[in-house]
């Protein structure tokens, strides 16, 4: 029998309520903390504890069979083509999974204060990019070789945690991008964070094998400078304004979110019509195309050798 996996939306503007407590928390403070599932750059301590100055009370490695990792949230072409996102997954239909990983999302659940959770919301777009949803997570021990199979999970077991998900077609670009590659810098945050938390070895091998965007032609470098010069100050200014205008839950005013959406849509429309024809591909490394079957075989072999 298939395991039931819950995924529900949190009403906009409402502060999330923790649905489970970690082993380090007492019953007295559980209502003052939030369980937050990280799967992207927030896995890395340099981002989570450093750049964002978040101080989690505890952390737990988890498996989320109802979600899968994607990289379809657009950033800046040539510089940061895309960022991590996650979409609903049907555990009973593995044909929709990446051939190299068929086990759902692996991440880390942090227990954070409500004040820190507001900072997380604000630094992740203030509600303009992601929706706040609750998902069921199954704890994983550190240092596992692989994740448990679907049949090994206790139905309706685990606990609920909040995470951020950008629904398909929402926001920045107006269309779903399936083949964009994260930058080398951004991918490095995921792999470093996975190592820091000692996530399952098979998942770390999967992350290691993900392609990353690299500039391989001089005109792409010119495109990067052009895009950053034209849109960088505006994007940074809007992000800074969001920090100033964010409410106590970290959410920015709707009008500011709409402005951000328009800016990104204009930028990516210009990329398709002007930048890409003039400067080349700003989403995918030229000459990096690999046969998916060969990549899967390579990752399987690396997993065997890593054991």
TrEMBL record:
Highest classification ranks of the organism: Eukaryota, Fungi, Dikarya, Ascomycota, Pezizomycotina
Protein name stated in the entry: gamma-glutamylcyclotransferase
Residue ranges with Low complexity bias: 19-28
Organism, scientific name: Pseudovirgaria hyperparasitica
Molecular-function GO term, any one: gamma-glutamylcyclotransferase activity
Transmembrane segments: none
EC number: 4.3.2.9
Residues reported in the UniProt entry to bind substrate: 36-41, 186
Keyword Lyase: yes
């Amino acid at each position: 029998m298939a395991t039931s996996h819950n995924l529900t939306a949190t009403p906009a503007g409402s502060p999330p309520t923790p649905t489970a407590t970690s082993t380090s928390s007492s019953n007295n403070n559980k209502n003052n903390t939030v369980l937050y599932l990280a799967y992207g750059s927030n896995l890395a301590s340099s981002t989570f504890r450093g750049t964002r100055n978040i101080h989690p009370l505890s952390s737990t490695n988890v498996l989320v069979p109802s979600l899968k990792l994607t990289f379809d949230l657009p950033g800046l072409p040539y510089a940061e083509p895309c960022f991590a996102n996650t979409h609903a997954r049907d555990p009973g239909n593995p044909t929709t999974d990446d051939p190299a990983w068929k086990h759902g999302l692996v991440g880390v659940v942090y227990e954070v204060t409500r004040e820190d959770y507001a900072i997380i919301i604000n630094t992740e777009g203030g509600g303009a990019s992601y929706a706040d949803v609750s998902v069921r997570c199954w704890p994983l021990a550190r240092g596992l070789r692989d994740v448990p199979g679907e049949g090994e999970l206790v139905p309706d077991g685990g606990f609920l945690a909040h995470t951020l998900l950008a629904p398909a077609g929402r926001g920045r670009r107006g269309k779903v991008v399936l083949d964009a590659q994260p930058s080398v810098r951004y991918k490095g945050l995921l792999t470093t964070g996975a190592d820091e938390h000692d996530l399952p070895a098979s998942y770390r091998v999967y992350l290691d094998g993900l392609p990353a965007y690299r500039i391989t032609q001089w005109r792409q470098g010119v495109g990067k400078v052009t895009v950053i010069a034209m849109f960088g100050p505006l994007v940074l200014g809007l992000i800074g304004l969001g920090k100033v205008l964010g409410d106590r839950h970290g959410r920015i005013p709707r009008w500011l979110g709409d402005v951000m959406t328009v800016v990104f849509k204009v930028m990516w429309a210009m990329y398709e019509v002007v930048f890409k024809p003039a400067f080349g591909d700003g989403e995918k490394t030229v000459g990096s195309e690999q046969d998916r079957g060969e990549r899967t075989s390579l990752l399987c072999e690396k997993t065997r050798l890593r054991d």
